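Justification of resources, computational component.

The compute hours requested in this renewal are based largely on the per-chain cost of generating structure records like the one below. Each record pairs the submitted sequence with a full structure-token output. That output is archived, and it is also reused by downstream analysis tasks.
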Amino acid sequence: MAYRSSGSGQNGLARPAEAIVLLTAIAALAGGVPAQAAIKYAVHRYSTEAKAHKHCPKDAVVYSTGKDGVYYLKDAPEYGHIKNAWYVCRKEADHGGWHLQEH
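The structure output for this chain reads:
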């Protein structure tokens, strides 16, 4: 429910049309982001494979730009060869909603 300041003279309630416009705008914004793009959890990003491995020594390190939610395994030709990409821990990437790029 939307409220106006006490000086509005309308018992503190906004007009129904204003509330409908506001709710419609919120619904449009919420539906405008693809599920893949939504960030579920933070994924730590590292500039080198060694730094990522130090953060997660018992996990596989993968490579990704993070923009599209896709990551590459070490044996992929893209691994380490994409501009503006990062090394990340695979479990964190999976937890963050990222996924393996299938070839």
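Residues 49-100 form one domain. The chain has two domains: 6-32, 49-100.
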